[in-house]
Amino acid sequence: MPLRDTDHISGCGHHVTAASDRNCDASRSTKLSESSQHSPTHASQACDIWKKLQSIKDCGFILLDGSDLDVASVIAVAKYNCNAYVAKREDIADAMDKSVVLLEEYLAKGYFVYGVNTGFGGSADTRTKDLPALQSALLQLTQAGILTDEDNGLNSMPVTWVRATMLIRCNTLLRGHSGVRLELVQALLLLLRKGMTPIVPLRGSVSASGDLIPLSYIAGMLEGNPDIRVRTSTCFILSADKALELAGLEPITLGPKEGLGLVNGTAPSAALGCLAVHEANKILLLAQGLVAMSCEALLGKVENYHPFISSVCPHPGQVECSATILHFLEGSSLVQSLEEADKFRPGLAQDRYALRGAPHGTQLNFR
Predict the structure, then answer these.
(1) Is the predicted pLDDT of residue 81 greater than 90, yes or no?
(2) CB–CB of 72/53 below 8 Å?
(3) For residue 176, is pLDDT > 50?
(4) Could you tell me the pTM of the whole model?
(5) Residue 230 near residue 77, CB atoms below 8 Å
(6) Which of 72, 81, 82, 85 is nearest to 275 (CA)?
(7) What angle do CA 282, 288, 291 make, to 5 degrees?
(8) Exposed/middle/buried for 169, CB within 10 Å: 0-12, 13-18, 19+?
(9) Rounded to whole angstroms, how far apart are CA atoms 70 and 81?
(10) Which of 30, 69, 129, 202 could form a disulfide with 16 if both were Cys (CB 3.0 to 4.6 A apart)?
């Protein structure tokens, strides 16, 4: 029987659902246009992610249920080493059990099931009765990257990428659609919690038919393949069989569809997407904050970012960018306000173009 969830922790666990608070102070401004007041802004959405990320970091772990994994949860596990567990729910284990049992019933009836007792791709017209060997052969075929035994990181994925990939693939498998046992997911999450990640080639996938090569190295770690190298939390490099022994796990013999179920997905692409979105959010808000600071340093004018200016176009990203910069400048005694007294200040009649044209907002035109 598949391993049940014995690692559940109750208490402050975070089910991976979107945060409900949409009122982050950084997104507020009395100058916001009517349209941005009625829909979430980039700033408010970024703040939602950061607030949930901080909440998870404070708690230290998340619970996976196969449904609502979000950016904050991925970042917490990938970058900040928060732990992940399977939520203690019978329906999760039952769904995975039913998937495995259904496959067994099909095979008992003699059905041909693609990638289980047939070849792959152009070889799908071939048949085999040695089902575990076929799954191992699939991994051997796709573990085609070029790596040294002591890879220095130039040709392998960063640890954060691999951690995010392992987490996302586990969450997907929990849905019970892939004929994969819960035991495999629990093993992957245990390795994550112990800080063990396989060394995965940086190149080898364009995610056209799933990220087969990267995921095959993760699957090979579960098999205890001695040719797969695993990096520990202390940066030691071990063979996968030694890493499993250190983690207190036995090598797993893959079931009839578990090799295919592990590798035929886009978790690496989704992982990199989450990490990129997180960094892009920081860069975008930092850029707007730096514009506000530059305006203060140059004793510039707040009129550059007045809603009247940005609404003339009107490009949604520019409107939002102007409103955010204007919010950062609220209460500043360094910039020239719209008060009448400031209209008699000596110096430039208007700011240099670099300040006036800063809120182009192209990157925010996501709606």
Answers:
(1) yes
(2) yes
(3) yes
(4) 0.85
(5) no
(6) 72
(7) 135
(8) buried
(9) 16
(10) 69
Query: pLDDT per residue over 264-284, tens digit each?
Result: 999 999 999 999 999 999 999
What residue type is 48 in one-letter code? D
250 vs 27: CA distance, rounded Å: 50
Is 114 considered catalytic here? yes
Domain boundaries, the chain: 131-265, 292-364
If you average pLDDT over residues 357-361, what whole number do you get? Answer: 85
CB 90 within 8 A of CB 58: no
Residue range 131-265, CATH number: 1.10.275.10
Instruction: State how far Cα 39 lies from the chain centre.
Output: 24
Of the candidates 106, 111, 114, 217, the residue annotated as catalytic is 114
**Angle between the N-to-C axes of helices 90-108 and 182-193, in degrees from 0 to 180, rounded to the nearest 10:** 130
Which of 38-47, 52-61, 228-237, 334-343 shows the highest mean pLDDT?
A: 52-61
Residue 156 and residue 201 in contact, taking contact as beta carbons nearer than 8 Å: yes
Q: Partners of 336 in the beta sheet?
A: 301
Structure tokens at 268: 């690496």
Query: Can you give the chain as a three-state secondary structure string?
Result: CCCCCCCCCCCCCEECCCCCCCCCHHHCCCCCCHHHHCCCCHHHHHHHHHHHHHHHHHHCEEEECCCCCCHHHHHHHHHHCCEEEECCCHHHHHHHHHHHHHHHHHHHCCCCCCCCCECCHHHCCCECCCHHHHHHHHHHHHCCCCCCCCCCCCCECCHHHHHHHHHHHHHHHCCCCCCCCHHHHHHHHHHHHCCCEECCECCCCCCCCCCHHHHHHHHHHHHCCCCCEEECCCCCEEEHHHHHHHHCCCCCCCCCCHHHHHHCCCHHHHHHHHHHHHHHHHHHHHHHHHHHHHHHHCCCEHHHHCHHHHCCCCCHHHHHHHHHHHHHHCCCCCCECCCHHHHHCCCCCCCCHHHHCCCCCHHHCCC
Amino acid at 262: L
Neighbours of 307 (CB within 10 A): 19
Cβ-in-10-Å burial (0-12, 13-18, 19+) of 231 comes to: buried
Tokens 């009395």 -> residue:
30
Spatial CB neighbours of 144, under 8 Å, sequence gap ≥ 6: 204, 213
